């Protein structure tokens, strides 16, 4: 890894009307075990106390610098911070998300497997509510190396607050696409950048849940219709470049739509359900039938196995508490409770797809 053994990391925090959560985010960032940090808070034209909170925090931590811009959206705010950054790597985090204290340190360790540390590092996330309480988590995958096709099929990174990325390559890819917001399709700027980086660079995994990704009503990821429009715009040019991947892209679009529909339904967000239902029925009828049949078969198979075990007097299987050595996030617990758990530091064997 060049830039000596301890490169400067620039953390970019886009913040818009974030006074309720910004201090918690800043606290999780400034308390990282790796302390050679530059922390840039980009106030995106906030109308509340966001700027004052960030400025006052900077008086206590001289690594914090506050930037301001007229409201232009999260992509422009991130790009502003990236342009101003002095670090070799960029680590974005939204102003309502939080990190495990060892996130940056473990990601840098993971990148050492690549020549000069030239790659992107990511980890899994725990889904948290307004109070920082866990209610779910990302599907823990073990993808490393060339992950372009894998990421195309499933956005397993899943948010904008997880990766550690080389600044020069982010700039070479054009940063985050602010044009999606201008087209009324804000939401998949992070996925578009990750795919652009994955076409050029290997990815390294830290196999633990080091990001607390907050889901709240009204945040960008809760607007399913806009997110699906954003996803379609991101995938269109990739489908044109790689026509042999068209089937994978269609499957990814269906799975994305199904995920948002399911989330809206179980969240009781019926306005979203009413918007999505006609689209799901009209555009994905064959896929829904196939998925429904497969899901019914899986449920019947699980029930059959459970019934057979009971008939044989075998105890039911205990729920898994670990995956690949990492403690699985437990619903109903605070994300901060995980800080006493030592993350997994062993590298896992790379599993990546071949480049088309």
UniProtKB/TrEMBL annotation:
Lineage: Bacteria, Pseudomonadati, Pseudomonadota, Alphaproteobacteria, Hyphomicrobiales
Domain Glycosyltransferase 2-like: 10-143
This protein's name: Glycosyltransferase family 2 protein
Record keywords, A-Z: Glycosyltransferase, Transferase
MF GO annotations: glycosyltransferase activity
Pfam families: Glycos_transf_2 (PF00535)
Key word Lyase present: no
EC number per UniProt: 2.4.-.-
Gene3D superfamilies the UniProt entry points to: Spore Coat Polysaccharide Biosynthesis Protein SpsA, Chain A
